[in-house]
Design a protein that fits this description.
The structure holds 2 protein chains of 2 kinds. Chain A is mostly helical. In chain B, about 80% of the residues lie in helices and about 0% in strands. Classes of the chains: A mainly alpha, B mainly alpha. Chains A and B meet through helix 1, helix 2, helix 3, helix 4 and helix 5 of A and helix 1, helix 2 and helix 3 of B.
Amino acid sequence: MNDVVIGTGEAVVFWVLGPIALAGALGMVLSRNAVHSALWLVNTMLALGVFYVVQEAPFLGAVQIIVYTGAIMILFLFVLMLVGRDSSDSVVETLRGQRVAAIVLGLGFAGLVGAGIARATQALPVTGLAAVQGGETSNIEAIAEVLFTRYLLAFEVTSALLITAAVGAMVLAHIEREPGTRPTQKELSRARFLTDRPQTLPGPGVFARGNSVAAPALLPDGRLAEDSFATGIEPQEVEQMPRPTGRAELGTPDAALGTLDPAPSDIPGGRDR
Amino acid sequence: MSLTHYLVLAAILFTIGAVGVLVRRNAIVVFMCVELMLNSVNLTLVTFARANGTLDGQVMAFFVMVVAAAEVVIGLAIIMSIYRTRRSASVDDANLLKY
């Protein structure tokens, strides 16, 4: 029965991508930042997609990459950005010793299931899918044949499930606002003038050589305007533009007045330069 | 190299996902760990489809993907609405479903 021999190429693919998939899974669990977790998981899912292609399931491999890494993980990232990137995990253990217990249980589970599977499937024959696909019928045709005959009912039920999920997501994510509860422009303006700062916040990078968000704005005396610091970004020292009047060298306005040409000009309205 | 390698890798990935569900507190990361568990089961299904020479395993993995997509949509919408009321995505804070 063992008519298909697993080739060296597949072994190479497995031993290259297996550790990558494992590292992705571990990185997802271990990284504090949720965005990093999502990116590690993308890593694992891409490796699994390649495994599907290698294991004679090219359709599932494509679906894995398109649906899982393309759609589902992007949805995760969308929600992460909405919920707030800084909502990192709390380090406090709610149940004492839960972390240690979970890790011990995990090691035990992995050992038990892994060893059990390894023992049970030691002499697993590789029949291969050459009888049902390959040659005349492609993988997609073979899957379609099974899907639309034996699994037709499940397929139809799946469409009902998907429509329910879409409607449910819309219902859950929708916010109903009563008319009149939204503050008008007049109320907003009045509330703003009651605060200490009715004007807008200073923009980034005023009088600086960069206009990035990380470049703080400068006050007239050259200090950094703390109101212009962006949230979540460390303010960076940026090179300032040369002052147009040279006030920095002259110091006080009185000193600046002393440097003016004392001789009155003939031209009405100013100096002849 | 045999199919056992794939199955053991899937078992380890499943375990890592399960430990992540138990250890992590952020609801979105817990959700990602569930996705990892589903993926590892898919790998098992595809491997057994190849071992048995039938396509049923692949069709089942396909259905798992569809159900996972529906589950992710609903779950993330629930996390969003919990976050809107509680201002937190931690699973410790959500102990009442209604408020």
